[in-house]
Amino acid sequence: MSTAEPLVGGRKTPADLLLRDVHVLDPRTGIDARHDVRVLDGKVVELAEPGSLQGAGGGEGTGEDELVDGAGRLRLLPAFFDPHVHLRTPGQEHKEDLDSGTRAAAAGGFGAVIAMPNTDPVLDSAPLLRSLRDAAARETCIPVGFLPAITRGLAGEQLSEMAELRREGALGFTDDGKPVTSAGMLRKALQYQRLCGGVLALHEEDPTLSRGGSMHEGAVSAALGLSGIPTIAESTMVARDAALAGYEDGRVHFQHLSCAASVDAVADAKARGWRVSAEVCPHHLLLTDEDVRGMNTSMKMHPPLATEADRMALIEGLRNGTIDCVATDHAPHARNEKEVPFEQAPMGSTGLETAFAALYTGLVLTGLIDLSLLVERMTGGAKLFELPTPTIALDAPANLTLVDLDAIWVAGEHGWESRSENCCFAGREIQGRVLMTIAAGAIAHRDRTLSLVGA
Ligand SMILES: [Zn+2]
Ligand SMILES: [Zn+2]
Prior knowledge:
The protein is of the alpha/beta class. The protein is built from 14 helices and 19 strands. Strands 2, 3, 4, 5, 6, 17, 18 and 19 form an 8-stranded mixed sheet that branches. A 5-stranded parallel sheet has the order 10-11-14-15-16. A 4-stranded mixed sheet has the order 1-9-8-7. The chain is globular and about 65 Å long.
């Protein structure tokens, strides 16, 4: 149904480089070994025994633009895919823009992202989608896809022109930032979906239960005297919308799951054969409401950080596939917007630049999941939006992330690519650093610590 290219933008110069003796890990193709990898004209053209490939012309540094020596230690992974970011454009460029947001993504190893429509104005019309895609084609350093609004102005009252938006390249639709409160409205959207396709991505929250709360409702909110949001504000809506999707044979994707009861609701829906998928954010996998005790406003997000039992259920859901993928919900806010009392601060944390290292440190190094599963889940979002899964294969456009798993760094110590610094992991020591990202065949990021051999 969609006639426009689903993703737009990214750097245009095809990469030519030789990655010598890197440990290639691609869980889907089953590669887990040291190789020399040659990228020519933006495509992976050779995977060979380590140390066997020479620069073009036979001498180091001749031919290829760059020669990277992995010394058998650096890992080459398929570039990550983030189905949930806020690029704040148009209208809130003081928080983020297409350039800074995609630079942040590339610095985190992401080869493509999907942007949310809660901008100013809201992305809910074909002319706006067209102009935003034109801007993205010029200004982004990795490809970007867009999810326009399900309802006009995110007001929940009238559907957007879903069919027209699909023809202009909408990957699907979401009212993210807000739930589709009316079951009847979501049902109508599911009926239109039958005609025009496109996944409906859902921010699940019953506003009559969340009631403007600032954090998870529990012992910590009681101790801090903050108004709480109960987990049922999310889980009852997940269950409702899964049932609606099942009834209409529609396709829905649950955004940022935050609690055990929601994981159960998704597992139940999948067991019934309903066409649902789900994502989880690094902060919900790694932090709990205990981290809110310091009243750091970067710990204030929607949905809120819940309990340790919820966190463990999310990790188990990610491990067993109930949760399909990781998404950052990268939500930049300006410093002056976050430097206010906790109750008044806007919801959200940035997350693109820390996602991999934070999850590697908190889940892989602790033995909760293994690296290949993390890579699978950090690339799993593409397929959910009917896009090709990033993979390391010959003659495919290079979508690659080079990481140093031994590098230990303090999040934010050298600033951020993002225009905003409201990162819930800021100041933490984390392990695993993205050294280079190649997105759709072009080098999108080089870490300043990456030493190149030759030139
Ligand atoms: Zn949301
Ligand atoms: Zn969001």
